[in-house]
Design brief:
mainly alpha; Ribonucleotide Reductase, subunit A; elongated
């Protein structure tokens, strides 16, 4: 059976799963989760150090591996334009798959907003290094290159599971209740997206 035939045959299932996802997905707003009262202006040219971090309570520090995980998790979310490009190319935009891809893109964008705002406000990571890495990541436009839409379905399902695990585990190790809540919220979104892709 050709890939196009397989996709056409399972599209009604994909449509039902998308409807289910939209029915259970809870609306939330990044600005309501970010502790903006911790923020202060960055001086131009000032060098960041781990001691600059402000997690609200004295004595809270994020361990270096957790800081690295936050950094990489956000870069994954930042590469969204290229994930969307390839998903759209493989599945098209005039089907349940296209509707799912657009909704997924909106949700992933929300994840990068809340994560970046939290990291900037709390000074959890070096903002200059983060922005330079984002520019390199997005300029490079590299994403996995599945051979066809069937491989892409398998990849997206596994990728969503991997990011859910990574976001949740990173959050558990943060020691900052707000950071933990943010990463848990993002991980919960990934969980409901897995349900939508598991056709």
């Amino acid at each position: 059976m050709e890939v196009a035939q397989i996709l056409a045959e399972i599209e009604p299932v994909a449509g039902r799963l998308l409807e289910r996802h939209m029915g259970v997905a809870k609306e939330w707003f990044p600005h309501e989760m970010v502790p903006y009262d911790r923020g202060k202006n960055f001086e131009s040219g000032a060098q960041w150090s781990p001691g600059d971090a402000d997690f609200g309570d004295a004595g809270i520090e994020i361990d270096e591996p957790v800081r690295d995980a936050l950094f990489l998790n956000l870069l994954t979310e930042d590469n969204l334009p290229y994930y969307f490009r390839d998903i759209d190319r493989l599945f098209g935009s005039d089907s349940s798959y296209g509707e799912w891809a657009r909704n997924w893109t909106a949700e992933e964008g929300r994840h990068s907003i809340v994560m970046r705002d939290y990291m900037t406000v709390s000074r959890a990571v070096d903002p200059v290094a983060l922005e330079r890495a984002r520019m390199i990541q997005v300029r490079g436009g590299q994403v996995p290159d599945p051979g066809d839409a069937i491989e892409a379905l398998a990849y997206v399902s596994m990728q969503e599971l991997a990011t859910r695990i990574s976001h949740r585990n990173t959050g558990k190790l943060m020691k900052d209740e707000i950071g933990t809540a943010i990463m848990s919220r993002v991980g919960n979104d990934e969980t409901s997206t897995i349900s939508s892709t598991a056709t």
